[in-house]
Fold this sequence. Notes:
Elements: E1 4-12, H1 17-25, H2 30-36, E2 52-58, E3 70-74, H3 84-98, E4 111-123, E5 132-141, E6 144-154, E7 162-173, E8 179-190, H4 199-210, E9 217-219
Parallel strand pairs: 2-9, 3-4
Antiparallel strand pairs: 1-6, 2-8, 4-7, 5-6, 7-8
Helix pairs in contact: 3-4
Amino acid sequence: MNLKLPIVALIALSLPAAAVAQPMGGRWGGSQMDQRFGGPSRQAAQPSKKVDVTAFQSADAAALLGKGPITVAAANGAEVEWKLPVYEAAVVDQLAKLGYDTAVSGAESGQIAQIGITHAVVVPEEEKRKAVSGAMEVGVSNRGNYQAMALNIDLSKPRKAIIATRLDVRIRDKVTDRVLWEGHAEAQSREDDDGLDNGAVAAKLATALFARFADAQVVPTGG
Length: 223
């Protein structure tokens, strides 16, 4: 939670009480004070809520998809660190819902779903800000001299980066190595203290991607 409280102190020099009140209600009130001393809390960029999905299938693959044994593995050259199992589990869950037999390991026949994960920084992490900042102004009003000081106290943490995460899945026939179906889903999220890859992001991408499984764009055989 952001906590950014403007604290304003006015010190009048040799002025009666009525003169102190005038700058507060006029010159120093409302948006003028905000603009002069740094303004209200700024609007931070937020991750897009949209999930972009693209999917294709071979023209003669419809009868082969959504059934039989299937193995899930990392695509060649894909990230194979600790993060991949999170996406593997999400993809396995969706394939099982489609009708595939996912309880197989090392089967020579059937199909294989190859997974790739990539990340791109959309908005970098904010730099650490000063907890206390401010400004001072001395001037003359129609009631006399005045001195004004504004302090901004910001105890909020810098916002983490906004990251675009892309999940690529390619389903091949194990025997012929022919691509039967492929697609990708991409969404934005704010990096949290647990890193880029968590169950919520993986489930969101896998669910959106395989919602397009049956109506993927058809491409000629061998595409």
